[in-house]
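I hope you will forgive my troubling you with a question about protein structure. Could you please explain, in whatever detail you think fit, how the structure tokens follow from the sequence? Thank you for your consideration; the sequence and its tokens are set out here.
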Amino acid sequence: MAKLSFYLRRQWLSLILGAMLTVLIASLIGGPMGPRDLANLRRHRRELEARRDELRAEQGRLAERIDRLRNDDAYIQRLIRSELGYARPGELVYRFSNQDAAQNR
């Protein structure tokens, strides 16, 4: 016990500085704004950049579709015929009944 108290009286400053250094290192590693948060921010940035690239690609496709709707009459006719079921004069349209709907009745 005497040796321990002598050691503590002699090394108290080193022990306090060591404890403060340990707390500082633990705070840097585990606390906010540490390496863990930096890794999370980098992962989130990659996700946002991927989403941005997807949105830019979708914007390009939509811009192309808008341009075709404004300028391409054949494209508009094809859309009208496929989505609304219109036919040109003299054209014969075949309609097939849905087999599943007929069986469920």
Summary: The mean pLDDT is 85. The two ends are 94 Å apart (CA to CA).
